[in-house]
Amino acid sequence: RKEVEQDPGPFNVPEGATVAFNCTYSNSASQSFFWYRQDCRKEPKLLMSVYSSGNEDGRFTAQLNRASQYISLLIRDSKLSDSATYLCVCRSGGSYIPTFGRGTSLIVHP
Amino acid sequence: DAGVIQSPRHEVTEMGQEVTLRCKPISGHNSLFWYRQTMMRGLELLIYFNNNVPIDDSGMPEDRFSAKMPNASFSTLKIQPSEPRDSAVYFCASSLALGSSYEQYFGPGTRLTVT
Fold it and tell me: Which of B45, B47, B48, B61 has the fewest CB atoms lying closer than 10 Å?
């Protein structure tokens, strides 16, 4: 079983839609969680960290469920510019080495 | 800040040739990572340096791959000899590993094609 698993998609949604991605992790020692965004033929960039109590940044909401070992990303009011691959990242306590998921592809169409 | 700088951005080479990829991390960062990304395998960590010292190289595919970090502002990833299956995008990333602080900044990548 992979350490970090994501549905590769693609998720194909119209502008204005709400879309959610989940990511499951197998290492119960994971302590830090992040969502990165990667545009086509570009490098990954940090979108947001995921905090235990959940956190919001504009149209983006991230949540953590430690009991079920998954994190989620919710995007409201999708924009064309949200089209990208979203990478889930986990890091174990005491380690600075992250584990990346394979990513979920999002396509927002007019 | 210039961000993480990688060179070359594109490299096309023939099988058997030596390839050297270069990375300049963000000034002040103490951790450096080399990744390889392909459609089939996603983003794979090759090697991780902390304070210029290799900490984890378990992701380095085989002896054909080697990485160095002679100082805090420069690192190289070398493939010798190169093979077609090495074709991928190679990313360098740096971070300031301090307490619970963590964010990786990626360079633009080197797109390697081995024919």
Answer: B61
